[in-house]
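On clarity, I found the account of how folds are encoded harder to follow than it need be. Since the whole study asks how a given chain folds, the encoding of that fold should be made plain. For the editor and my fellow referees, an illustration may be useful. An entry of this sort, consisting of the sequence and the corresponding backbone structure tokens, reads as follows:

:::
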Amino acid sequence: MDSLKVDSLKQPWWGSRAMARTTLVSTTLPHRPANAQWAPFPAQEATVTDITAIVLKDWLTDPRVYLIDVREPAEHHSEAIPQAVLCPQSCFEPQQFPWQSTAIYVCHCRSGKRSQQVAEQLANHYGSVVYNLVGGIEAWKAAGLPVHTAEHLS
């Protein structure tokens, strides 16, 4: 996939193995063949790839994409990106996460910091690529994209 570039090597906060950090600049959805381990890099490395709100908007039309909201329940219930599934960071355990090797996982929070940590946990635990919404729901709203508010969610 030529739209990925390695920005830096980032040391995970929980361990010593460095993870490549990348930024996705294309809206083309990565291909994950059925029944196969997949990563957009030659080696199966634990990586977190940042994506923009516009890229995520295009990706959400694909049923393989799972958007994980790692904010707390009160935050999620006040406003949420459509299709986001709540999985709070405060009680998140990667080994209990219902992982599917053909799915594409994108994490988000308010600004992108908590979701980066959860994405790193998932990537490290499953040795795969996980995506992080840069700027979180704030970037999503700044791009003029819709959110469900408390009145829609109740």
About this structure: Strands lie at 4-10, 19-24, 47-51, 65-69, 79-80, 84-86, 104-108, 129-133, 148-149. The mean pLDDT is 78. The longest strand covers residues 4-10.
